[in-house]
Design brief:
By secondary structure, this protein is an alpha/beta fold. The protein has two domains: about 35-260, Alanine racemase (TIM Barrel, Alpha-Beta Barrel); about 270-395, Lyase, Ornithine Decarboxylase, Chain A, domain 1. The chain is built from twelve helices and 18 strands. A hairpin with a 2-residue loop joins strand 17 and strand 18 (about 380-385). Bound molecules: pyridoxal-5'-phosphate (PLP). The site of pyridoxal-5'-phosphate (PLP) has 18 residues, from helix 10.
Amino acid sequence: MEGVALSAVAREFGTPCYVYSRAALTSAFAGFDAAFGPHPHLICYSVKANPNLAVLDLFARLGSGFDIVSGGELARVLAAGADPGKVVFSGVGKSAEEIGQALDADILSFNIESPAELHRVCQLAEAAGKKARVSLRVNPDVDPQTHPYISTGRKQDKFGVAFEDAFELYREASHLPGLAISGVDCHIGSEITEVRPFLDALDRLLTLVDRLAAGGIAIHHLDLGGGFGIRYRDEQPPSPGAFVRALLERLRGYPQRILLEPGRALVGNAGVLLTRVEYLKPGDERNFAVVDAGMNDLIRPALYEAWHDIRPLRPRAEPPRRYEVVGPVCESADFLGHERDLALQPGDLLAVMSAGAYGMSMSSNYNTRPRPAEVMVDGGRPHLIRTRETAAQLFSLERPLG
Ligand SMILES: *Cc1c(COP(=O)(O)O)cnc(C)c1O
């Protein structure tokens, strides 16, 4: 990775270990940012994809804003030195406390997901003597044809307000004293590898923007959400630049600032999970390669049947065998890859590819397994950006009855 041997990273920091490339993160960001040219825009990195402070700090320095979904993520981006004026707050369940935190920070916009939330934000803003900037997350009812768990913009999904109700709700919001309407927002799903669903969603949003303009309600920004797919296996997603150019084409004549909320597309291909083979367990039906990373470290295969390439750091000359690559966790769903043809010996190091997004951020301590270390490679040097947890830390908050 860049100028660093991953085997040296494994030696120095142990396994399992997440490793990210600063150069890859930087170039992914530039791919989106530069494609806008002079059109006013803001990339709001979706923090939940990978919230490590070093990642947030890097993006903040590149000029990124942030899409957050909790008070915890707000605390993180502020700790990383982000400009609160570049933060948008999404999510269906914002608590009064979280809304208060965001009002204090004076964020760019609340992405409102229901009428009840709109009224709560208004009340809290009024009580604080403030005006909350809001966008309604409109559900454009387009189907991005991905896994149902990662599709968010269809009618049956829990997110956003129905397209048909949006105009009335904007009208209502425009009369509420604690609110200032800033934009229109949508987010249709994740791992979308075509431009089409984004253009369909954009078309619907633009009809709403036109109607609002005719009704005297000005919209200052259009937030088109995230969900830009990457290559895990053989997907052929458009490049970030191609996504952006297609959107700009449709946006001719609309001067609004464009916000995007990419998560996976900024970090997914910039990271790997390093793991070591503990045991080989040949069998009549299947051969197992038991590795030291499990579903608690990387849950995507178990949760979404996601496919990650698994590559040996040093390929062996022997003929490959077909393996189930599994972790040490006591669940049959604990696998990293099915039916992988690999030539392996115990002790070999493997890189689970494209693990920079929703890897560490979805990890858990199931089976009292300390979470992995995280390392960022910068040119010739690996930097530890999160220390490996210890078992003692995992139960340090617990108290016996005594
Ligand atoms: C998760 C999420 C994103 C980022 O999704 P990716 O697929 O990682 O790009 C953006 N916006 C919202 C509202 C989200 O919930």
